[in-house]
Amino acid sequence: MLAQINLTHTYNFDIDEIANIKVLVTLENQRYLRIKARNIDRCIGECDTDSVNLYCKLIPDHSPDRSDKIFTETHLEKIIDILNNLKFSTLNGCFYLDGDKNNTTILELEDKTNFHKKLNSNIKVKKLYDECSVCFEPTTCKGKCNHYCCYTCWDKIEQYFCDDCKENDYNGDCNDELCGNQRCPMCRDKLFVN
Questions:
Q1: 39: how many CB neighbours lie within 10 A of its CB?
Q2: DSSP E strands, 19-109
Q3: Which residues have C-beta within 8 Å of that of residue 138, sequence separation ≥ 6?
């Protein structure tokens, strides 16, 4: 199947969910396995959004001739191994493999918080984590409104539609600026990653 495809740009895997989070899994430029959330958006500009990256890993190329753009069984086996061993961190809002260096623990965050508590009161420090406003587990994930919500809970928040759009099938031309967006469980504002 995949081993015979010439991959020069992007290949989309037919994977719908990993760890109960709706995802889009792609292989980009034959080298990067990327997992993006389908229900969690980052606000880029005034209206533009981009899906949040939950995982990105370079797949090492062992072909003797790098000009050869053919995807091999070895690549596929590495991807299968990665996908089968992925875990999701609600604290960090990302997938990880055992031994990954970037997987911050709650103890490390508590140590930093304890250090910050010893600072002078005129030094303002960003809050590193808080409880998810839905499940009350610790998380570093928060919306633009500064309310914390882990990506596992965020992924399950339905899009809001006004009564008119519910009846007439939402087409994107609604005057209600919240229509067609997820809403923060705390303040009910548009929910985008900060």
A1: 18
A2: 21-28, 32-43, 49-58, 87-89, 94-96
A3: 90, 91, 106, 109, 129, 130, 131, 132
Same domain, yes or no: 25 and 51: yes
Range of the domain at 110: 106-182
Identify whether 191 is part of a domain.
no
Tens digit of each residue's pLDDT (9 = 90 or more) over 69-93: 556 677 788 889 999 999 999 999 9
Q: What is the identity of the amino acid at 153?
A: C
**pLDDT digit string, tens, across residues 144-190:** 899 999 999 999 999 888 887 877 776 667 778 888 789 999 999 98
Number of domains in the chain: 2
What tokens were used for 148? 């914390």
- 158: tokens are 């339905």
Non-local (6+) Cβ contacts of 148 within 8 A are 129, 130, 131, 132, 133, 139, 140, 141, 142
CA distance between the termini of the chain: 39
- Contact between 78 and 59 under an 8 Å Cβ cutoff? The reply is yes
DSSP state at residue 189: S
Q: Which residues of 173-182 are buried (b: 16+ CB within 10 A; e: fewer)?
A: eeeeebbbbb
